[in-house]
Write a structure and sequence with these properties.
This protein is an alpha+beta fold. The chain is built from ten helices and 18 strands. The strands form four sheets. A six-stranded antiparallel beta sheet has the order 6-7-18-17-14-15. Strands 2-1-3-4-5 form a five-stranded parallel beta sheet, sandwiched between helices. The protein has a five-stranded antiparallel beta sheet with strand order 8-9-12-13-16, covered by helices on one side. The longest helix is centred in the middle third of the chain and has 55 residues. The radius of gyration is 38 Å and the shape is rod-shaped.
Length: about 425
């Protein structure tokens, strides 16, 4: 059985006892819980002590007038709304306007007609019911927002930890091999991103390095990048997709075009996800400086020659994870001592300034020329600072990552 609805509390304020009695009789007959006050001051004290749903107040009274009492009533603290009706013989527009300015909701002319009073009370009931429903919905919304904030805070903490884990995928940002050195830059645009850079030794003579950009942003892309990191890791050679594994461990390495095909088959047949990725994967001989690489939908690699020129390499190629049975052409490159090979994701070329203009390949080439005298980590740091200056902010819209392979010559081993 449902609990009975709470009776509305009504306060009648009038310096005329007879007028209060007439109103009280009618209101009690209609089921209201009625209280009385003989002045605005007494009524205000009663309102401070307890709440009323409806107030009917005379306009002209000793002490506080009806409008003055209404202003004071509206200033009282409280969550619920009180419907305020002024009882008056005034009908001039200026007087009505001053009553509305004071906070009154409605007016009743004196002497009060019971039918009109009933109609005004019903109008007040409708407004109070809407206010109650709005209050309940706001309370539920507040509770939902509090719960959502808790979920967001938890997710934010998880994403911060995920960012730390993702950054840990690239442990050594710089490594010197004697005849060559490799430097890495990885900067997600949000908590986590879909870019991945890295390197691993195929054998004592050969070094693989790569730049990957998974489609999309956020957690799904980061998870895909993390899985690819496991497939291109020196710490788990048996799971490395680039290595030929025999009964006693790795015995050789697949050429870059085969690595791309194996990754393509892994994404389409094993992972079966909606994402794809672009990449450049390179296999460098640390004794001869010969490099074989594939470009799979990734921005063109750049060769920074020892005499200060910048050459754009590659023909493009298909992204990985889009076309079953896709094939990739290998690019063979003979590096000279002092040459550097620069791989980057499109977060650099597609970086926009405050006017919305992209840096583009030409703009990136200019930046590379500007910093070409620098080497290794210093080159990548300077490039990142120039990119921030171009964008007008360090908050990039896309992940920014790059690899720099510096060939010094076999006599440096």
């Amino acid at each position: 059985m449902n609990a009975p609805a709470r009776r509305r509390r009504v306060l009648v304020v009038d310096d005329s006892r007879a007028q209060r009695l007439l109103l009280r009789v009618s209101l009690a007959r209609w089921g209201y819980d009625v209280a009385e006050a003989g002045s605005g001051d007494a009524a205000l004290e009663m309102c401070r002590a307890g709440s009323f749903d409806v107030v009917l107040s005379d306009w002209v009274m000793p002490g506080l007038s009806g409008p003055d009492f209404c202003r004071a009533f509206r200033a009282l603290p409280g969550d619920s709304y009180g419907y305020f009706i002024l009882l008056t013989s005034k009908s001039e527009k200026d007087e009505v306007a001053s009553g509305l300015d004071a906070g009154a909701d409605d007016f009743l002319s004196k002497p009060v007609n019971p039918a009109e009073l009933r109609a005004r009370m019903q109008a007040g009931e409708r407004l109070l019911e809407m206010q109650r429903e709005l209050h309940d919905k706001n309370r539920l919304l507040g509770a939902a927002l509090t719960e959502l904030q808790g979920v967001y805070d938890s997710l934010d903490r998880d994403l911060i930890e995920a960012r730390k884990l993702q950054q840990s995928l690239v442990r050594d940002r710089h490594r010197d091999f004697g005849s060559a050195a490799v430097s890495l830059m990885l900067r997600p645009s949000g908590h986590v991103g879909g870019d991945l850079v890295g390197y691993f030794q195929l054998n004592p003579r050969r070094l693989a390095f790569f730049s990957v950009d998974v489609s999309g942003h956020g957690v799904a892309s980061a998870m895909m990048a993390a899985r690819l990191a496991g497939m291109l890791s020196a710490s788990a050679p048996d799971a490395n997709i680039a290595l030929v594994v025999g009964a006693n461990g790795p015995v050789d390495a697949w050429p870059p075009e085969i690595v791309a095909a194996r990754l393509n088959r892994m994404v389409l047949e094993v992972m079966q996800v909606d994402q794809y990725f672009t990449c450049v994967y390179a296999d460098a001989d640390l004794e001869t400086g010969r490099v074989a690489l594939v470009q799979a939908g990734h921005p063109h690699p750049m060769l920074l020659t020892g005499d200060g020129r910048v050459q754009v390499l590659g023909e493009g190629g298909l992204p990985i994870g889009l076309v079953p049975g896709g094939a990739w052409d290998r690019l063979d490159l003979q590096m000279q001592p002092g040459d550097r090979l620069f791989l980057m994701t499109d977060g650099l070329t597609e970086c926009r300034n405050v006017l919305g203009a992209e840096l583009g390949e030409d703009g990136l080439t200019d930046m590379v020329h500007h910093n070409i005298s620098l080497g290794g980590e210093a080159f990548l740091d300077a490039l990142q600072w120039d990119l921030e200056r171009f964008a007008g902010s360090g908050d990039f819209a896309d992940d920014v990552s790059a690899v720099l392979f510096d060939w010094r010559g076999s006599d440096q081993r």
